[in-house]
Amino acid sequence: MRKSRSTFRITGLSLASVLLAAGLSTGAAGPASAQTSAVRMDYTCTTSAGPTVALTVWVVGGLPDDGAGPNSVSYSSYSYIDVDLDLRELRPALPVGSGVRLDGDSTATLDAHLTGPDGTRTTRAAFTLAPTWITDTRSAAVRARGAFPAQYLNTPGAYDLHVDDLALTLRPERADGTPLGTITASCSHDPAQNDVVGTIQSQAAHFDRPIRPDALRVVSATPTSVTLAWDARSWWNPTAGYNVYLDGGHVVFATEKQTTITGLTPDTQHRAKVVTVDVRNSWSNPSEGLIFTLPRA
Fold it and tell me: What gap in Å lies between CA 225 and CA 107, rounded to an integer?
């Protein structure tokens, strides 16, 4: 006889009581903020420039909080895992001289695997580098933002996120925009090193919430502003509006599926997300993050 999976259903209004019963605090009817965890990785990189590079990387994961409790998701829903990189000591791969610039033309990929109750699955995150001027590769920190593809953690249980190999494609340029060629690097770490960014708990539960927005996109951008748009549809109750977040902080409540954010800094990288709010103040899970870079002044 087939054994049926035991699940329970939580509505938006009963979620707060579940959190309290679990000993977790809850505020308004909004979703829990993503829990940040990090691991330091020491990579040895083979570069197209010739020398071998010792690279220190902080891998910072924004693990989803889509269930009842930190770093939890429903087994029946997809989830997004954000990940950022803080790369240090890019020497001697870069021809620094009087200083070079790296920006979104430079990219990276990070291999990873999830180990859980259904075995091991591999995944890969793609990154774009934030605009960075480098004058000293010893002290300069190059940052990049990315995300793993949507994950369905179909079997309830704990899933550990392990970091694997890193690949870089760097396209440095001079201050006047003159390109300095392309440098690639293939990086591996000591397999004995701790490589777990964090653990995600897949729960045998359904969470009845408004449908999360999707297709978040940039409509237009200036050096100090950006106009975002997204797609969304209503749930059981009519939609009241949308909370828009930039780099984890709330910036605006929009009543339409589009908004303009002003007062930003030129030549900076950001991650935006949107949450649907219905007329009963139930909140959806956050949309997939959108990473964008504003133009130079």
Answer: 24
pLDDT at 81 over 70: yes
Q: Where is the domain boundary, 184, 205, 226?
A: 205
Question: Which H or E element spans position 42?
Answer: strand 35-47
Per 3-state DSSP, what percentage of the chain is helix, strand, and coil (rounded to 5)? 0, 55, 40
If one counts the domains in the chain, the total is 2
Separation of alpha carbons 26 and 32, rounded Å: 8
| Measured distance between the N- and C-terminal CA atoms of the chain, rounded to whole angstroms | 67
Q: What is the DSSP letter of 40?
A: E
Report the alpha-carbon distance of residue 291 to residue 217 in Å, rounded.
9
Lookup result for tokens 């930039």? 246
Task: Tell me whether residue 297 is exposed, middle or buried, using C-beta atoms within 10 angstroms of its C-beta: 0 to 12, 13 to 18, 19 or more.
Answer: exposed
pLDDT of residue 136: 65
Measured CA to CA, the distance from residue 126 to residue 110 in angstroms comes to 7
Q: What is the pLDDT of residues 4-47, one digit of tens each?
A: 444 444 433 333 333 223 333 333 344 444 566 899 999 999 98
The pLDDT score that the predictor gives to residue 32 is 43
Task: Over range 201-215, report the average pLDDT.
Answer: 92
Pair 52, 20: CB distance under 8 Å: no
- CATH number of the domain enclosing 33: 2.60.40
Calculate the average pLDDT of the chain. Answer: 85
**Who contacts 118 (Cβ-Cβ below 8 Å, separation ≥6)?**
154, 155, 157
- Domain match, 180 and 96 both: yes
